[in-house]
Amino acid sequence: MQQTNVKPIDCLHFIDGKFVPSFDGKTFDNINPATEEKLGTVAEGGAAEIDLAVQAAKRALNGPWKKMSANERIAVLRKVGDLILARKDELAALESLDTGKPIWLSGSIDIPRSAYNFHFFSDYIRTITNEATQMDDVALNYAIRRPVGVIGLINPWNLPLLLLTWKLAPALAAGNTVVMKPAELTPMTATALAEICRDAGMPDGVVNLVHGFGPNSAGAALTEHPDVNAISFTGETTTGKIIMTTAAKTLKRLSYELGGKNPNIIFADSNLDEVIETTMKSSFINQGEVCLCGSRIYVERSAYEAFLEKFVAKTKELVVGDPFEPKTKVGALISDEHYERVTGYIKLAIEEGGTILHGGKRPEGLDKGYYLEPTIITGLDRNCRVVQEEIFGPVVTVIPFDTEEDVLDQVNDTHYGLSASVWTNDLRRAHRVAGQIEAGIVWVNTWFLRDLRTPFGGMKQSGIGREGGMHSFEFYSELTNICIKL
Ligand code: NAD
């Protein structure tokens, strides 16, 4: 098991350009989800470390970062992207050790996309111009952009470096300084990223990193701090509600990317082979631990049996196991606690009257590690908790439908509204259905195809605001309108 020469790292905070332990020396263990063994230790920060980091970020905001020209800042950001690519194999191994995801996945998506986030946003910032509005011959208005200030970035464990860089790159490109609080379960690539920022020539204090937990720990301290101007948060909807309450006391600007319970809608006229190929990914990639995964699959009744037959057959072929084995398609779930949560939903599915068509248990021969067979459930109706609540694991429900109205009614009957995919070869229906789904992102005949200029985010309880292209810069910058009487 675990064929990698890359050594796990002990994770310290990175504050004002230096790696430092916690003031009281407190640490917690970092566990490898694929082996249940200790990878190393992580410094456990709290209010004191957050305060030090915020003060450093505040000094850097109006100090060295502001004094650099736009071209100089862009050069540093591009260098961060270059250095991520230069350390790609090492970062991919660290990501797979931390998360349990297959190494081919971290090597082909997580790490290259993290580099691209820096290259993309450092290019994009050059295209932004100021808006000007003339009022007849009375006045001329123009709006200038400035940074929001010190931004707190709070991230989840499922795509650790990819999602952190998705926030960090535009925040820095817009001239802000940051304090990052990565997920406690996946601290290693964030620590490596701090080192990369330093090596790329980022001035001290521009990027700070404090490890720790959420409640009564570094996460809560960051959202409470009066000198933090905005919080960009990706994580669970329930956590988002707590952060909103805390952040209200200092009226922080908030950007939220939250949970989802995303539908795949498959019409009988779609190409079944294409559907199956993509549905395998949208269901089980990254162990189903992607916010965009399609966990509710609706199939038009005339295609239902044929879909299930092929889907189950293909799912049986998926190899579950060691993330460092090239043939592995599904790795380990993130933690003991999450494993209990996901398997709890499988038990609940049976109580709610569902049938487990495939999976539902630990694969044979894998006694250690949080491994679970990809699981397909049928026979549940729209009101079941398993159909309504986010499971965030390799578990999908499949439900037949009869009409467009019927499926739209079921699809929109949820508090979530992150993404959806629609499968049909009928052009008019594709547009008609896509436009009626209450979700921030709808794919037609594809899934997870991303152009970083497009708006990304959720509606209802899946998020507030959008990221991507100009949308990211809207969040990470303040506007001042200057009106000049002519
Ligand atoms: P989580 O909400 O448990 O934790 C996310 C982060 O918030 C962690 O860093 C955690 O330490 C911190 N945190 C927890 N409580 C806090 C508090 N009270 N104050 C401040 N910080 C706190 O989420 P998770 O389990 O790490 O991630 C999985 C969730 O993230 C799923 O719901 C998934 O759908 C969602 N997600 C959404 C997107 C998206 O783009 N919409 C992307 C990825 C993941």
UniProtKB/TrEMBL annotation:
Q: What is this protein called?
A: Aldehyde dehydrogenase
Supply the source organism's classification: Bacteria, Bacillati, Bacillota, Bacilli, Bacillales
As for family, the record states:
Belongs to the aldehyde dehydrogenase family.
Q: Recorded GO terms, molecular function?
A: oxidoreductase activity, acting on the aldehyde or oxo group of donors, NAD or NADP as acceptor
Domain Aldehyde dehydrogenase, first and last residues per copy: 24-481
Q: Which domain of life is it from?
A: Bacteria
Keyword annotations of the record: NAD, Oxidoreductase
InterPro entries named in the record = Ald_DH/histidinol_DH, Ald_DH_C, Ald_DH_CS_CYS, Ald_DH_N, Aldehyde_DH_dom
